[in-house]
What we know:
The chain has helices at residues 5-9, 12-23, 28-32, 39-51, 70-109, and strands at 55-60, 63-68. It is mainly α. It has a two-stranded antiparallel sheet. Strand 1 (55-60) and strand 2 (63-68) form a beta hairpin. Helix 2 (12-23) packs across helix 4.
Amino acid sequence: MRRDVFQAIADPTRRAILGLLALQAMTPNALAEHFNTSRQAVSNHIKILSECSLVKQEQAGREIYYHFNPGKMKEVDNWLAPFRKLWNSRFDQLDELLQSVETKSKKRKS
């Protein structure tokens, strides 16, 4: 089953797993230590992240290490880019308005 990246990152536990894996590769057991849940639940989250290619696995002896896949996250960033541009534009307009109001307020007090 191929999963949607946005569906995968909608879950806060999966976002936390991605955050941990962005720092270093980890085994499922090492990941499970960071959560107040079962190893099986963490494994299910890893499976979902793997199905949409947000994480990659690497066999090292008997252990499986999971790595964050920044290339896949770039797709999310690309999708968000037009919204970020719009938000930044609106924040710039708000900054200009607030500066204008502050300037007028200072002139009145003088």
